[in-house]
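Consider the tokenized backbone below.
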């Protein structure tokens, strides 16, 4: 009798353990897929800067902070991914101003768009990041001294950086950050899918997978 009772209890515990494990796994998968299932409008907005062909069927979305050293390190490789696929891949930038001084830099970037100088300005911002983006003492105003080399009308850009439309872009991106639960930069999505594991090779592999699927 005692042996039978013990076996019964053991079976019950095993079933409960299996059920608990299944529940934990299911919740984990739900959390993992929550961002991927988010409507595309929250990944890409009409105001988002785009590098590459608008008609490209593969979209890399990067949540980007201009003060982020890793964003700076990734940028050349991400740009190469777009250029290497001959109109099949585009990059969409979303702002994630997690560091002090980043919102000021985003305002400058948005002002440069009004002069069609966004990408050369972005490259100057990233190249000079060590000068202006110290996390202990960020000095985003230092960048103005380097922007004429990007072909920017600096005086006009200073005025445009203060426009309400620029502030609205930043606020929308910050709202989407919270909705999508973005916590770090860079965070990448490829055609709505998050990277299975962070890294450039993982990004490259997912891009190539999506290119093959979109252009059989």
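A designed sequence for it:
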């Amino acid at each position: 009798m005692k042996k039978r009772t013990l076996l019964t209890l053991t079976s019950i515990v095993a079933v409960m353990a299996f059920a608990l494990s299944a529940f934990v796994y299911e919740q984990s998968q739900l959390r993992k897929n929550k961002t991927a299932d988010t409507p595309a409008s929250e990944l890409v907005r009409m105001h988002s800067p785009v590098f590459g062909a608008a008609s490209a069927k593969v979209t890399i979305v990067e949540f980007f902070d201009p003060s982020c050293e890793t964003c700076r390190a990734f940028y050349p490789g991400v740009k190469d991914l777009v250029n290497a696929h001959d109109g099949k891949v585009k990059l969409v930038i979303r702002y994630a101003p997690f560091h002090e001084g980043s919102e000021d830099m985003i305002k400058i970037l948005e002002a440069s768009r009004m002069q069609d100088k966004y990408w050369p300005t972005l490259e100057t911002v990233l190249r000079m990041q060590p000068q202006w983006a110290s996390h202990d003492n960020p000095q985003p105003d230092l960048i103005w001294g380097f922007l004429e080399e990007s072909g920017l009308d600096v005086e006009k850009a200073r005025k445009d950086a203060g426009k309400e439309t620029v502030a609205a872009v930043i606020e929308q991106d910050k709202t989407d950050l919270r909705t999508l639960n973005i916590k770090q930069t860079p965070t990448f999505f490829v055609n709505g899918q998050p990277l299975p594991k962070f890294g450039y090779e993982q990004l490259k592999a997912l891009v190539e997978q999506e290119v093959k699927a979109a252009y059989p």
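The CA atoms of residues 5 and 11 lie 10 Å apart.
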